[in-house]
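thread from #wetlab-drylab

HS: before we spend reagent money on co-crystallization trials with NDP, can we at least see a predicted complex? here's what I'd submit
DV: go for it
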Amino acid sequence: MENHIRNRTVLITGATSGFGRQLAFDLLEYEVDLILVSRSQDKLRALREELARHTRRALEIHALDVRDRLAVEKTLAEILERRKVHILVNNAGLALGLDPIDRGNPDHWDTMIDTNLKGLLYVSKPVIAQMRELDTAHVVNIGSMAGRMPYPGGNAYCASKAAVHALGEAMNADLLGTNVKVSTIAPGAADTNFSPTRFEGDLEKARDVYEGFTPLSAEDVSRAILCVLNTPPHVNIQYMDILPTAQRNPYLLHRGE
Ligand code: NDP
Ligand code: 8X3
């Protein structure tokens, strides 16, 4: 296997579940150091323990809410003083609710925008400031099909992901002439903890989302992230859509099975 990221340090936000967790495991094969971030210290500890059974590479964990700007600044300053972060995967994010705009919950809107958009900005700033000085560096932002094509009830979530897509382009514009590449990966329906979170623990509703078709798995999306990451320094895959074959866009979904 060609390995363009050997010995790099990778910081993943939202590392304890779904895409982020799978990526942490898949990255072990690439001989990188990992810095893993999510809110839950318990889940991070359990994850580190599991990962440590398969690697001797450095595994740092940081319980951090990406919405908390001061905490992000403090934690990132401490990390960046000690080590170089070559790869940042801005993955932490969530959807809450699926109500039309006039019935939406403004607290949900705040949480989604604060996490998916503002949290991504807070984390990116100090990391990219250091990346400018590195020989090669890469930021991967996890967008969504929802950011490209909004659907009924998606309102604030779709808007937050459209903003992530715009930021990816804006970051690439700001970083012209540097060695820092920026990529946006936009998955369609994927079976992770995303839907249980969206429906606040209603597992029946969550299951219905994937009824009658084969959704993406965390493995599928992790492989796409790795494909984008493991490119030579002069190659930047700036944008990638990845959807289940049964889903061509949010409206064209074949529930045939
Ligand atoms: P999961 O719910 O399985 O994982 C979300 C992760 O984000 C968890 O580790 C969670 O950990 C962490 N997280 C949530 N809020 C915060 C926060 N404020 N600060 C730090 N970490 C946080 O979802 P997915 O793996 O599916 O989602 C990952 C990303 O992919 C999200 O940005 C999502 O919007 C996007 N996406 C998902 C799709 C899908 O269908 N699954 C499709 C397209 C995009 P903890 O709760 O401990 O903080
Ligand atoms: C998550 C996928 O299309 O259910 O971003 O919003 S979708």
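DV: The beta strands are 9-13, 33-38, 59-63, 87-90, 137-142, 180-187, 239-242.
HS: ok that's useful, forwarding to the group
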